[in-house]
Amino acid sequence: GAGVSQSPSNKVTEKGKDVELRCDPISGHTALYWYRQSLGQGLEFLIYFQGNSAPDKSGLPSDRFSAERTGGSVSTLTIQRTQQEDSAVYLCASSDYSSRTPNEQFFGPGTRLTVL
Amino acid sequence: GEDVEQSLFLSVREGDSSVINCTYTDSSSTYLYWYKQEPGAGLQLLTYIFSNMDMKQDQRLTVLLNKKDKHLSLRIADTQTGDSAIYFCAESMERAGKSTFGDGTTLTVKP
User: How many whole angstroms separate alpha carbon A72 and alpha carbon A69?
Assistant: First the structure.
């Protein structure tokens, strides 16, 4: 596709339910990132995938959060037993080593998650 | 670890210049970026600068880097209402890898 896409664009769930958020990066991009943006807050790094290397999970806030990237392309962020404090916009970005601008990240439009 | 700090809000009049400031802690930062986020959208790269440069100009945008003080600024000349957005400063040590983002500065341009 032309850019990074994310689905769903909006997700409303009840406290305690599990949710899955999907990211389709730009085709051929080897790196994929997940961030969380809470209302009035900055960008919080969650997890980073680079090629076939083990992902950098240092930003995941708890073991309720997990992510996988299948076939080096699509990624799914899973939040188990959602809590109200998980309400935020979840942003995905991708980048490629061969990009003309070093380490430029291309962002999707985000998924707005609301936990009731 | 790396830390990037920005003031949270800036308000200017249309036609004035805007200056958004950023400080970072990691002297190993090689690339420094400014991203723009418009309402309801993801971030989009505006411009970047290598750490061995002092200044970069791109049309209405001027980036100044003071490496000694670890201070980065973005000046927008002749600010327009369409420039109203959140501006994020970010740094990266490598050509490929994680970037550290600041909390973003919300720029409001009043007519």
Answer: 6
Amino acid making up residue B101: F
Chain mean position to CA A60? 11
Structure tokens of A86? 């998980």
Q: Are strands A65-69 and A75-79 parallel, antiparallel or unpaired?
A: antiparallel
User: Which residues 6+ apart lie within 8 Å of A7 measured at CB?
Assistant: A21, A22, A24, A111
> Measured between alpha carbons, how far is A33 from A66 in angstroms, rounded to an integer?
13
The model's pLDDT over B85-97, given as tens digits with 9 standing for 90+, comes to 999 999 988 766 7
- A55 has a chain B CB within 8 A of its CB: no
The β-bridge partners of A56 are: A48
Max CA distance (Å), chain A: 44
Which of B28, B42, B46 minimizes the C-alpha distance to B97? B28
**Phi, psi (deg, nearest 5) at residue A70:** -95, 130
Contact A104 B88 (CB under 8 A): no
Of A48, A49, A65, which Cα lies nearest the Cα of A113? Answer: A65
Render pLDDT for A5-43 as a digit per residue (tens, 0 to 9). 999 999 999 999 999 999 999 998 999 999 999 876 788
CA nearest to A114, candidates A5, A4, A8, A6 = A8
Out of A97, A104, A109, name the one closest to residue B45 (CB).
Answer: A104
- State both tokens at A7: 């689905």
